[in-house]
Amino acid sequence: MTETFYALLPDRAVIRVSGPDRVSFLQGLVSNNIETVTAEQSSYGALLSPQGKFLFDFFVYQQDEDSLLIECEYGQDGARAAELFKKLRMYKLRAKVELADITDSYDVIAVFGKDALSALSLTDTPGTTSAFATGIKAVDPRLAAMGARVLLPKNSLAEMAAIGAQEGTVEAYHEMRVALGVANGSEELEIDRAILLENGFEELNGVDFKKGCFMGQELTARTKYRGLVRKRLLPIKIEGLAPKPGATIMNGDKEAGIIRSVHGDGGLALIRLERISDDAELLADGAKIAVTVPDWVSLPEKSA
């Protein structure tokens, strides 16, 4: 029996960007190279403040030859999607683009499990994309181990049963996600405070340093080339009563990090790299905390 699960993600929205300037419009704003987005390749990136701090992250797909789709956070009562839509409209100026919130037309589905990509006839190359029924299927552009993302018109979930996928839970998806060390937008990334490279965006294909200027590029590039990454968002395992997000992780009398999310007995935490070691005893609100470093994470070398 194949191990393929799917979960409808209710906290996702879809914005369509169409018109002749759609690529150049987004190219000057987004951290990744929008020119690489095709019917065969999707992308992950972020919109930053002018000061280089995180505002929104999202996936970009090609819907057709005239339209791109941005899959982003929905937020409480749609607030996050509305904020992103407003921001894009503000930057639109004279660009020949049309913006439309088409969230009501699409379901966003996570497909995960060890057989997820083969069930969808996808390779293990992040971002690989093709048509799926009347929608889109794509290997998660961040990390193939995350599985795939599927955008389908509403009321098309029967297509998931057709590939042999079993209905899973959103929580099972998030437990898998945090174990891999991958953030879920503003759940773990502080709005107007988080820095991309502290949260894995370079390794997760979310920023292109060769594409040219984008909003907030200066701080992002300076962080990279001056080696200024001192913290990283990393998976944690929790032994004991799980602390709430926002709890401080202590190494003795020194602050070692902040818990950003908890799912099951794991979660994600922003960790001060100089405060952790193999023999560190980390505690948060009485619970024991163990930090893990996924294979895809590249940490700065420790000085001798």
Could you explain the architecture of this structure?
With 304 residues, this protein is α+β, with helices and mostly antiparallel strands. It folds into 2 domains: 5-168, Probable tRNA modification gtpase trme, domain 1 (Gyrase A, domain 2, 2-Layer Sandwich), CATH 3.30.1360; 187-291, Elongation Factor Tu (Ef-tu), domain 3, CATH 2.40.30.160. Helices cover 16% and strands 33% of the residues. The strands form 3 sheets. The protein has a 6-stranded mixed beta sheet, with no helix packed on it. Strands 12-15-14-13-16-17 form a 6-stranded antiparallel β-barrel. Strands 3-4-5-2-6 form a 5-stranded antiparallel beta sheet, covered by helices on one side. Strand 13 (248-251) and strand 14 form a beta hairpin.
Task: Please provide the ordered H/E string of secondary-structure elements.
Answer: EEHEEEHEEHEEEHEHHEEEEEE
CATH level 1 name of the largest domain: Alpha Beta
Q: Which percent range describes the beta-strand content?
A: 25-35%
- Quaternary structure state of the chains depicted: single chain
C-alpha Rg (nearest Å) = 19 Å
**Biggest pleated-sheet summary:** 6 strands, mixed
- Helix tally equals 6
Secondary structure category: alpha+beta
Give a quick set of tags describing it.
304 residues, alpha+beta, Gyrase A, domain 2, Elongation Factor Tu (Ef-tu), domain 3, 2 domains, 6-stranded mixed sheet, 16% helix, globular
